Description:
The protein is mainly alpha-helical.
Amino acid sequence: MLAILGGVGAALAWGAATLCSSRSTRLIGPSPVLAWVMLVGLVAVAPFVVLGPGPGRLSGGDVAWLVVGGVGNAGGLLIEYAGLRIGKVGVVAPIASTEGAIAAVIAILAGETLSGAVALTLAVIVAGVVLTSRPSADEPRRGEAGHRDARLAALCGVAAALSFGVSLYGIGHLSGDVPAAWIVLPARLAGVLMVALPLLVAGRLTLTRAAAPFVVIAGLCEVIGFASYTAGAQHGIAIAAVLSSQFAAVAALAAFVVFGERLARHQVLGVAAILCGVAVLSVLQA
């Protein structure tokens, strides 16, 4: 039961973060949103880092994987936010949620064995990404204004998934050995040092009254989602992974209800293929 609660909690938190980020990026842009999300997350996780257990004795390799995990997560969020600014949540979020599949591919390239079931599941996910990336009838066609944005949003989802996948692969080397707060910390530090501080120095760390609630909620939900997943995974990695990966479905459904986003039939089919494929792959990998 705790694995189910942890997975569902992560899906709801990450879905809410994605939805809030899609609104705030259209108000102030992806870079300021990432900066504020990371600042909020850093403030939220700092007490657990200071008061909780330390990371222990880290080797050079451990530090390198922490950096890879942090930079990959922060970079993925920045790319995803860029996609959410110009595209539909129901397209960008499901594609970005294939991060687990990307991590699996990296593991295979690193020498892990590829089973027939995993290969078939990856093929289904790729097919889902292709279908979801195709524009719907109500979107601009080739040569029309806005066509480039629709394509670029889908490509941002793919690039975000690649960055997230690298991050997940790096974090996978540390899970179980390093406290969760210390695994969450690097991404927040990377976002603050690489995005927030440069924007602050340049005088471009903007925040409007309309965007403030969205970035605060997104920053808190990113941390809450990770904490919920970590708690659930201690009682069942497969169940927690499958349920938490459905954050894309939560975000897409919420975008339909709250913002009236609509997807074409082939895009709905693509999203379904992605979500089912990610769920099956999570079980196979766990």
